[in-house]
Specification:
The complex is a heterodimer.
Chain A: H1 2-34, H2 42-58, H3 61-64, H4 68-94, H5 99-119, H6 139-158, H7 160-170, H8 172-177, H9 182-208, H10 218-231, H11 236-253, H12 258-262, H13 264-278
Helix pairs in contact in A: 1-6, 1-9, 1-10, 1-11, 2-4, 2-5, 2-9, 4-9, 6-7, 7-9, 10-11
Chain B: H1 2-32, H2 39-55, H3 60-83, H4 93-112, E1 118-119, E2 128-131, E3 135-138, H5 139-161, H6 163-173, H7 175-180, H8 185-211, E4 213-214, H9 218-233, H10 238-257, H11 264-278
Antiparallel strand pairs in B: 1-4, 2-3
The chains are: A mainly alpha, B mainly alpha.
């Protein structure tokens, strides 16, 4: 039994990180593979969600209920709503930009928001937010949420809105000529995807119990983008596999020679370059 | 009032470096309609290679020429072998490729040199000129500003009066029509990448000489701001990019001067968003036919 307990303890952190990355990757997959919008500021919603959870769980939530599970659910819900709210107001002006310009605008807005977070008082400023309650978060809960989100998104892709979102990606002009607004579907996809990332951020805050403005940096956005691209932009399952690759490889490399472990970013970057050269649509082929 | 003038002058020096990088972004965007995200890395690589050659006891000018040639060839190679195959494969492939390249170059430099900032031992003439009662100008800053202006004039003349320059302008006006009249499209693209990279190398070396320090992430740091400068000036416009660089440099220096330095790094991005949304053609740009 001791052995099982130790194994569980060892794997619980990477497992939770895997769940959190999967949430973020699925959110970005909906935006990139679903609606065809390249968001380079995805991590800022993760950051916003994390701070939301951090703030409400260390101040307001204990006043409402004593149950850790209920607090965790409420905290995740708030993270989801608040980051969705920010995403909604960010996307509307950005939608008049196309392709690369849209990507640049999301990148820039992400950096602007992270500068703002660095300068606010209630976020702890540049030193970060410490002592976030863990609320007994465990891999089981995170895994369950990932499963629910996965199933809901799968179902969502099959709904009429899901089809509209995907046809926005393929040909927005054809869609417009059918009298369907692609703005609405893009707004829904972006808001929902960012809100899911925000929920991931909430779980992250409880897992690590510390949040800093760096969590929303461009580098993390790139990591998630890699997860989605490795798995294949058009595949929801692919983004789960991509997150597995992103989280598992550093854990495995930890046992290898330390030179490789320290320089993992070079391997990631080379992987992206090779993928783009030989399989620009991602490793996994998607049926549609 | 004196304070304001002082910050303005400081800003011109910072802005010169942004301008030199922005020119490359702008040119490449002009001919290929593509944002070369990895362009900032040429700036970083230029500074590192210059230092590397210089430490081998190679004379100053030769180290500069070597690093410019090397980085220029690298950029041409990158375009040939990594960007060109992607021209037809989807909207995001080149951008993601550029992000990957940028990440690769940063980390590669970290491995070869060191993740920590390195000292840059070459320096422009030290010394301070006092002007009036309160305004102090570093001699370095005058050199940097002057070199930027001279280079931009040379570059402008190159684009205006040489046949290569005419070809670059033709390709950025209408690639298909340019190909029809026999302009070697791919060679022009290569030349554009080469020239942009050389300008970035000059910027990198000057940045190193100005702060006496180089670090692996200086490329992303200044590169993204330079990109903002290029958009600000109107992508595809040479003088627009230079003006945009000065604009961002001066506004950063003003923010720092008036005790708002915490907001400094967000400012360039804020300017970028505002310009993208409300004046996507930039300060000097003409209305684009492609709706952005």
């Amino acid at each position: 039994m001791m052995f099982l307990q130790d194994t569980y303890d060892y794997f619980s952190l990477p497992l939770m990180l895997l769940g959190i990355y999967s949430l973020m990757a699925m959110g970005l997959q909906l935006i990139l593979g679903g609606a065809g919008l390249l968001s380079l500021g995805h991590a800022i919603f993760f950051c916003i969600g994390g701070y939301t959870s951090a703030i409400i769980s260390s101040t307001y939530l204990p006043l409402i209920t004593d149950s850790n599970l209920l607090q965790l659910i409420l905290s995740a819900l708030c993270a989801f709503l608040v980051s969705g709210f920010f995403a909604f107001f960010m996307i509307i002006p950005c939608l008049r930009l196309k392709e690369n310009y849209f990507a640049m605008a999301t990148l820039a807005l992400g950096e602007v928001l992270s500068t703002v977070i660095k300068n606010l008082d209630f976020t702890g400023g540049i030193r970060g937010f410490k002592d976030i309650p863990s609320l007994d978060i465990n891999p089981l809960i995170v895994g369950l949420i990932v499963l629910i989100v996965y199933l809901v998104l799968r179902r969502f892709y099959k709904s009429s809105m899901g089809y509209i979102i995907r046809s926005t990606r393929d040909d927005d002009i054809a869609l417009q000529s059918l009298g369907i607004s692609h703005f609405k579907s893009q707004i829904i996809a972006f808001t929902l995807g960012s809100a899911i990332a925000g929920m991931g951020g909430g779980f992250y805050a409880h897992t690590i119990q510390f949040m800093s403005p760096e969590e929303g940096s461009f580098n993390r956005s790139i990591e998630i983008l890699l997860a989605v691209v490795i798995g294949g932009m058009n595949s929801l399952t692919g983004s789960l596999i991509g997150s597995l690759v992103i989280v598992a490889i550093p854990e495995i490399l930890r046992f290898g020679p330390s030179e490789i472990a320290q320089n993992r970013n070079v391997f990631f970057a080379s992987a992206v370059i090779l993928l783009m050269l030989f399989r620009p649509k991602g490793l996994i082929k998607h049926g549609s | 009032m004196y304070d304001f003038l002082q910050y303005l002058l400081d800003g011109l020096a910072i802005g010169s470096v942004y301008s030199l990088i922005a020119v490359g972004y702008s040119l490449v965007f002009g001919v290929l309609r593509m944002v070369n995200f990895a362009h900032g890395e040429f700036f970083m690589l230029g500074a590192y290679l210059f230092m590397f050659f210089f430490n081998l006891k190679i004379p100053l000018w030769i180290s500069f020429v070597l690093s410019a040639l090397f980085v220029g060839m690298l950029s041409v190679g990158m375009e040939r072998f990594l960007y060109k195959p992607l021209r037809k494969s989807g909207r995001f492939a080149p951008l993601i490729m550029a992000v990957g390249l940028s990440l690769f170059l940063q980390n590669f430099v970290q491995i070869i040199f060191s993740p920590n900032p390195q000292s840059f031992t070459v320096s422009l003439p030290e010394g301070i000129i006092q002007w009036g009662e309160d305004i102090l100008i570093r001699k370095k800053d005058i050199y940097i500003f002057a070199i930027t202006l001279v280079l931009t004039f040379v570059f402008d003349a190159f684009i205006r009066f040489t046949s290569f320059g005419r070809a670059i302008r033709a390709v950025s006006m209408h690639p298909q029509a340019a190909m029809l009249v026999g302009i070697p499209f791919n060679r022009i693209i290569s030349i554009t990448f080469f020239l942009g990279a050389v300008m970035a190398v000059v910027g990198g070396v000057m940045q190193g000489m100005s702060t006496n320090q180089i670090w692996p992430f200086m490329g992303v740091h200044s590169g993204l701001k330079a990109f903002a400068a290029a958009v600000l000036g109107g992508t595809g416009e040479l003088w627009g990019a230079v003006l945009g660089g000065f604009f961002i440099g001066i506004s950063e220096s003003l923010l720092v001067g008036y005790d708002l330095s915490m907001y400094k790094d967000g400012l360039a991005y804020l300017i970028l968003v505002v310009f993208l949304l409300y004046r996507p053609q930039g300060i000097l740009g003409k209305k684009l036919t492609v709706k952005v």
